């Protein structure tokens, strides 16, 4: 059986994947209305599936066995009171980045819901922690990993970015403009230019505190709750973070293989990310030669497993050309899509854990990985063993661009086109209709169901702070790897430094051989050796370039 997984597989593994089926879900949109999707052929499609807030019925084609049937989406049904928006975007947990990628001796700038935030670690020096220059550190002293903190990226003094500050050896954060210093709770602890008496007066003023957000580290990923109000700690503590619970099964650690996390700030919005990963129909087409083939049998059969609520939905997906159980795609609001593909009858399964958070208009923070559940005898299916090759993490990250940019070309253009043409906007309040802007069909179940969640439960838009203007379409942004990933990743930065050094050595060696012509090499040997090292240097230059930019063309992907 081919592996029926989601469109985001290469976010979690750099290996080539042969899968043509995936995930999907019930139709719906961002409308505040509920609609029924009736069809005369398939009981599964006769269930209530919301579609659009168009002013009249929308004719679409539905398919059960590859035969087309005309179906009507009734867009005049009114929603019940329980469908009123209940989701508060600022009272939810959001994934930002796996902390293993971060340098805990530096502050890091990110975006969340349009807000500038700074992530830093309040760990102290292992020996004689103090506010001092790093040049004065005791020999052998190292920074301990303390608690990860998230502040609004503004010093309360003059609103300059704290992400340009410094993490000190005593576990405090210093603003590099006037050296105001803050503890992990965001409280001002020192201002060097003023006397102690004035400092105490300033500290007593709540305005002197940084806006600090609750933080949790779950399975290595930093999650934050973008609210600094008095109730934030209590409300966040009462709200669970979505994780992979393996459908409620108790599984021992010996049965679970967890792949490396991946992270990107993708050049399209959070809602378009979710829309994409609950859409299995695009997988073998958009990811031709990576995940399946656009020329294969692409028929899909879908069923509803959990109906749409304010908490999300789930659906079952099966490729009509394949045997097996198919896959299950679950959306847990607002940030998780979990895709499960069982293997055999002994409990083995493959999971894609996909998470997203809205960073700014037209962009989203994505975190994802692959997880494999061995069967009850602790054996891993041979088809899944290829995903467990021990690739260096930086290699996984670099190769992922080949997958991500395939979707990004479409989604960046789609979102910006809909917004600039005022057809459908989620970066600002607007009375837009998704179904009027597009031409949905039956295999858009997941897409439309998510759009219905947006409209019925999440206010119909993402309430970004600050500038809500949608950026212009620019493929340079799509291909940008440095700003979307590399500059934040300690693994990739370290690998990049080593590769640059290796490149220098290869070019230097090539020049030395060509100049000196060692006696133990013949003239021909010297020339060939010099050319070989030079070629290796150019090869390393190509690889180094992938840390900065990776271009892709669907027209050239034959």
Low-confidence stretches: 1-84
Largest sheet: 8 strands, antiparallel
Secondary structure category = alpha+beta
Oligomeric category:
single chain
Range of helix content: 10-25%
- Please work out how many helical segments DSSP would assign: 13
Overall pLDDT level: 83
Rounded to the nearest angstrom, the distance between the terminal CA atoms is 25 Å
User: Which strand-content bin applies to the residues?
Assistant: 15-25%
Structure notes:
With 558 residues, this protein is α+β, with helices and mostly antiparallel strands. It has helices at residues 9-12, 43-46, 196-203, 232-237, 270-277, 283-286, 382-385, 393-420, 434-437, 445-457, 475-479, 490-516, 523-545, and strands at residues 37-38, 58-63, 68-73, 94-98, 108-112, 115-121, 148-152, 166-167, 173-174, 181-182, 188-190, 212-213, 215-218, 221-224, 256-258, 262-266, 300-309, 312-319, 327-332, 336-343, 348-360, 363-373. Strands 15, 16, 17, 18, 19, 20, 21 and 22 form an 8-stranded antiparallel β-sheet that branches. It has a 4-stranded antiparallel β-sheet with strand order 5-6-7-12, with no helix packed on it. It has a 4-stranded antiparallel β-sheet with strand order 8-9-10-11. A hairpin with a 5-residue loop joins strand 10 (181-182) and strand 11. Helix 5 packs antiparallel against helix 10 and helix 12 runs antiparallel to helix 13. The longest helix is centred in the C-terminal third of the chain and has 28 residues, at 393-420.
